[in-house]
## 1
Amino acid sequence: MSEINDKILKMRLKIKDMKAQVYPIVNPELLGLDEYIKSLYIKLLCTIILYENDPLEMQVLYLKRIMQGMDIEDPIEEYMKKALELSEVDIEDFILFMKKDIVKCYFAVDGIILLVMGNHDYRNIEYLAELLEVCGLDKNDLNSLSLIAISILQQKSDCYEKAQKCIGHNVMGTDFSPYIKSFFDSGIVSDNEKYIYYRNMTNKGLNPKRIYESNKIIFENMEICLEDSLSFNKCEELNFVNCKFVKNVKEDISCIIVNGCKNLRIEKCSFTNLNNIHDIFKLENCEEVFFQDSLVQNCNFIKDVCGNEKIGLIIQIDGNEKIKISIINSKFQNLTGSSKVKYYRPSFYARPGSIITNKKSYVSNCEFDNIEYYAYLGTRQQDYLKLEKGRMRLFTRKTENIDNKINNSPEFNSKDCYHAKDDWEDDDRGDD
């Protein structure tokens, strides 16, 4: 029996070690710190749980989760030892950095959580309060950060919402979504609207007449039925994660209009049964688009295009600006597009339209199945003509094709289209 017990004990210890890997706290702000500041961040947190106490198991686990999210590979035991070797220069460097950086708010929340988890007394509290004060946080800041820490510990949305109402000046605009996303069921809007975080909501909380202009906007675990276009302007970061876009009420629209966004990310989303729309994403003056692990299925598009104009049903780029587009591990199935402009039919002399997006992209491990485009040649429904493969393409001629699968759809890019002759190969006019 003792042998079995020993084995089970080892298994339990292994399971405990794996918890940090399975449940990391991934905070982009902490992950992006340089290695020296990362090291100081963990060492100072270690001093909080070591001061006048022996660290408890749950405190160590929480620290491991933070370290895992910061991509720190060294064992926690090493940092416990290194914490005892902190120099005055280390402390000074840490404080100087924290005074000018919003990271101090995360450090405060992590420190408070660790204190609450342990057998703390007034000396531990005094030590943390002194440390946070010299980092630039005042009494009001600490009050709001304490409430945020409590909401994380209690896993309660209403507690977090109360904390938001008394947010301190130095805390304003801090994104705590990495800490609360596992339990939050509502919408977070920071007081100065620097960030918006919607989770597990219906789209009743979204205002189609509003132009969203926050620095960072996240929609997660939502089902969105579009009555009108959603519009975003000058966002640093716009994320759609695990969202379902279902049949729209209003036709003849661009679903999502984005202007001046640096980083647009679409991950684990589905777009199904969107009918008679112009396009899903209409972008202008944007820098980067990342489309991954998503599905576009059973959608019908109608475009106002003619001549050699490019199309872009999924991602339409207005203007000639350079933009980085990555489409990875996604599926596009049963999509139909048509032009409602009479006599639209790309010819030998006109560049064929690019169906998925009209700008150069990087496309990897995607599937394209049953995608068609029709030209309008008259006034009746039967006057629509399915364009030959050589007249249409999925992407522009310079788009990278990495391990993609195509079935019953146009060719991937222009290499096999009619206009791709030798005298066109170096012609970049309007075709990225």
## 2
Amino acid sequence: MIDSNKNIPLSRSIPLGIQHVLAMFAGNITVPIIIAGIFGQTPEQKIFLIQMALFVAGIATLIQTVGIGKIGSRLPIIQGTSFGFIPVMAPFAKVGLGAVFTAAFIGGLFQIILGRILQPIRHMFPPLVTGIVVLMIGVSLLGVGFQYAGGGAWLLNNKPEVFANGSHLFLAFTVLIVTVLVHQYSKGFLGSASILIGMGVGYLVAIPMGMIQFGKIADAGWFALPMPLQYGIDFVPGAIILMLFMALVTTIETIGDISATTMGGANREASDDEISGGIMADGLGTVFASLFNAMPNTSYSQNAGLVAFTGVVNKAVGTIAGIILVLLGLFPKLGGIIAAMPESILGGAAIVMFGLITAAGIKLIAQSELNKRNLLILGLSLSFGIGMYLKPEFASHIPDLGINLPLLLTTGLIPAGVLAFILNAILPKD
């Protein structure tokens, strides 16, 4: 384990930072690609949104790791664009991205307030509650890991006959096997960098297989400046209400990610300052994102899984990752090198990382006495969370309420987390 404040040389921190970037890159650029399609953006505008997503993710990560006053967890919490906001943004395609970014700005301010006042109510989020949230984050990501391993969502939806074919599975399991072997049989730095080594081997293997999309490298520009407020300011009450609600949702997720990071990597609960500072950094990252034409930001669960796998809970590594993301946003050609990588390479690593998030949730839950009361909370929360995640049709007749409620419920995380919080608050303790 490498703790948060220990100084480690650049020769180690840079590769470990690259490892974090690789773990979140695909997810971070996928969101602006989806949003560009929904909002009818031109190819040039899509490239701009991708660039902004990378740049903002880097700045938001630096806010999280370096901190500003009481803002920031000072942990290797990696920020990026959030998939959870897509169903909230989609209904406002007709009014434009200006309304979305304006609403996100207000939602980010609200999340800063939530983080600031969290400490007095921190006791309402014991290990049982946060453990359930972390466990559900892991469970909801397991399928994503195998989707990556098969070649990604685009292949699954557009070329199902190619998805999970021999080439993609070979790459995914090459990365997985190399990662596990290096992690288990190497000591020190090599063990910590096992994900990077595994993905690097996968990248090299993919070249003679003809699976590296070199066109993405050639098409990317050399340098691009971030330009704020390109979509203007537009106050739409409905969008603002939804963003305020999503600020609550992403706060629960961020508590889970921070808890997973400290428990999985350092075998301890997160402190009040880490939780509060992390939530405020999450909000400030979204505020910054809205000004620079990027989707709302949140902590990335896959990176919490990476911390659990490597045991490196060092803010310097997260800071390096943030700097790299900023450079990728300023120099798109660098991002093109990563974008050229088939998603099956990431999938091999993701299967391991997402499984460890689930394990970190189990470890948190195990800290609580599993008496009659707590078993009821655990059982009901997981029943609703996993049940609705596996059978989304159950929520098909639930009223939308203007917030895409059925979709939010079928994430699994929301019903499990909210129910665990409520039951813990109202059920009498033995």
